[in-house]
Each structure stands twice: as C-alpha cells, then as structure tokens.
Design brief:
46% strand; two-stranded antiparallel sheet; elongated; mainly beta
C-alpha cells in the first residue's frame, strides 16, 4: 500500500543543516496508487 503524507515539521540537528527528524501525518483511509 501507499499512502499520501503531508510533512508537518522538520527537526534539524545542532548544526542547523542536518535533518534529524521529519514529522508527517497520513490518511490511512485514502489509498492511492503512486504515480
């Protein structure tokens, strides 16, 4: 399965360049095929 997700927040490391965490939400009811 593939679910559409929406990024809600990006957490950067101490150097302000390295991405440590990406927070996202998804809709488990909306199953769509990736293009």
């Amino acid at each position: 399965y593939a679910f559409p997700i929406k990024c809600t927040e990006v957490i950067y490391g101490d150097d302000k360049e390295t991405i440590v965490e990406i927070r996202a939400e998804y809709d488990p009811l909306k199953k769509s095929k990736p293009k």
